[in-house]
């Protein structure tokens, strides 16, 4: 075959002409690819697609991207596998696993652990009891140790510390990393440190060489100190792992754990009024906007779901919701695991406030609105009918559960 480069001027012209109907088909669909050194490369300019009127559109849900799904593309990209056959040392991480899954704080911590592990060390994650996580490999986990048993259920810090002591004896990790959070990691880390007689570095947000920097003085000061063995790290202490895949090899404890003294008795969770939970701390928020036509039904649905109520600014300005319920740039920035937006269009000021939410569900009449683009799950239709159906579905589910229990 001749090595003369052949050009198709017509195809080039179509590729340049945003208004041509074949323009999208002429664009390279590959937005990320593997570079020669095994690092994933991304073309940030390739994000989005040109709409019918020639304006560039960026689909926040990732469902379109010029006709090719971003999620499918992500699934197709096989990240390079990082293997550590014989680890020179271990970096142990104890994630919070709120709801049985890695939280964003846990992922930041794993990113930090990877930095400390380098190419010779292995990141060993210790998980208590059952979990639902399926993405340990892409979160940077080389070894996984699951400590099973009912003794770790609920609030069991003494038993957990005992488990961690056994892991410490067996693996002798170079560092222990726990999230300095209110979801368990902060307390467990301090108890563990006391049991090891170590002085931990707390609220660490940066590690530079052999030094770490943590927040102190009621969040007003930074405290630099030599890197200790036990680190309690703040959220956003490092970027989560995104460019490598890891083995997640299961490891086990070689010793059997003795039961600790039952000095603490877990009496179970206390029912709280969802309305009394501060918006910034609520895990499940049911938010209403201008598209809610029946506010009594809205409150009824939130109560049936056991969710904390939120609102758009329009709903607040119109007097349907209290000012402290407003979500968004001029309201509260929320971090819920599930955020349901009923009749909210998704104005930029509102979307800013829900940027840290894990899963967003949109109920809206308009399939083209920005909230639907942001949402992980959308229900297109009239809000009153959907809320009514939701109440019925919750009631049927609860009755079914009661029947099964009987
Ligand atoms: C400086 C500044 C700060 C702001 N700060 C905030 C803020 O913190 N928080 C905030 O929320 N806004 C804020 N805003 C206002 C923001 O720009 C939007 O005006 C507001 O978020 C719109 O609220 P909405 O989505 O409820 O109403 P709309 O924009 O009117 O949207 C209503 C939505 O409901 C849908 N709908 C209508 N009828 C139905 C039905 N029967 N069933 C289902 N869906 C239906 C429509 O399709 C539409 O998508 C701010 C604005 C400014 C200028």
Automatic annotation (TrEMBL):
One of its GO terms (molecular function) is flavin adenine dinucleotide binding. The keyword Transport applies. Residues 91-271 form the Electron transfer flavoprotein alpha/beta-subunit N-terminal domain. Keywords: Electron transport, Transport. InterPro entries: DHS-like_NAD/FAD-binding_dom, ETF_a/b_N, ETF_a/FixB, ETF_asu_C, Rossmann-like_a/b/a_fold. It comes from the Bacteria. Signal peptide: none annotated. Belongs to the ETF alpha-subunit/FixB family. PANTHER family: ELECTRON TRANSFER FLAVOPROTEIN ALPHA (PTHR43153), ELECTRON TRANSFER FLAVOPROTEIN SUBUNIT ALPHA, MITOCHONDRIAL (PTHR43153:SF1). This is Electron transfer flavoprotein alpha subunit apoprotein. It comes from Pseudomonas palleroniana.
